[in-house]
Amino acid sequence: MVSSSDTALTINTLNYNLIKNELNRSSEMSYESKIKKFMQTTFFDRKSDRNFSETDNLIETGIIDSLGIFKLVTFIEETLDLKVESDDLVAENFETIEAIVAFVNNKQNT
Length: 110
Description:
By secondary structure, the chain is mostly helical. It is 55% helix and 0% strand. The longest helix is centred in the first third of the chain and has 22 residues, at 4-25. The chain starts with a helix and ends with a helix.
């Protein structure tokens, strides 16, 4: 028997893969736009987080957790073709959308 949590996990995984593939094909979209779109479609509940700003803390508010950071890192590596090193895995790089964009910008310029 499949539980409702198993079904929700499957749906979340499918949604994650769909958006990741869609953004991979969007070559004319800036990396900043890709990150924002990925965050919006993967982590934000369209109703409760509609007014979430780029400077709000994603970790403290529970929008993103360790699994979410793993998804985000995978997205960055696969979609933006960047290597995220273990030294990069600090909260400061993933606390806000603004910090994530700055982190990616710094990685692209090194």
